[in-house]
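Regression test case RT-17, inverse folding.

Input:
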């Protein structure tokens, strides 16, 4: 059964329209730069433990939305920049961000069937796995007792995911409605 093109165009929801239209490069770059600068904030004490992975959260959003423009290499180089900024073991965040990128892109089709808020339970294992990879890699490289407290930061990642993805999704909706 064929559907008239005008009817098909009206059937496309706002969410589908955002997925169909590519994002502006300025929005992608601006969000990644802002996320990196948020990572550079001087966190200390308990705030350091619950600091969200700002850059990873933004990268996961773009891996879901634009995987052909923001590939896994962005995760690797972003992770290296985070390692350099946080003076950790070089390559730990790069490894975990790359694995998170691979998982996000692999399960992208399934996650896109849900709204940005409903994607949260599917994103949580990726965020938890990223932190777990960092803890285990640092433990294997440095020895001693693993810093399991870092895993508490998953709660802040979980809490920050929803507003960040809704903000970026809303920017895409605004752009797609203003374009012809």
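Golden output:
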């Amino acid at each position: 059964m064929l559907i008239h093109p005008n009817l098909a165009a009206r059937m496309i929801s706002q969410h589908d329209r955002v997925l169909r239209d590519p994002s502006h490069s300025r929005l992608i770059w601006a969000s990644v730069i802002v996320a990196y600068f948020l990572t550079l904030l001087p966190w200390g004490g308990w705030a350091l433990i619950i600091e969200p992975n700002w850059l990873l959260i933004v990268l996961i959003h773009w891996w879901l939305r634009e995987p052909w423009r923001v590939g896994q290499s962005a995760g690797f180089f972003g992770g290296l920049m985070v390692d350099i900024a946080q003076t950790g073991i070089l390559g730990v965040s790069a490894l975990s961000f790359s694995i998170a990128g691979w998982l996000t892109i692999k399960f992208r089709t399934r996650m896109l069937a849900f709204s940005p808020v409903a994607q949260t339970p599917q994103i949580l294992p990726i965020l938890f796995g990223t932190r777990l990879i960092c803890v285990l890699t640092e433990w294997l490289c440095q020895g001693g007792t693993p810093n399991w407290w870092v895993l508490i930061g998953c709660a802040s990642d979980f809490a920050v995911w929803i507003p960040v993805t809704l903000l970026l999704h809303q920017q895409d909706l605004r752009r797609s409605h203003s374009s012809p």
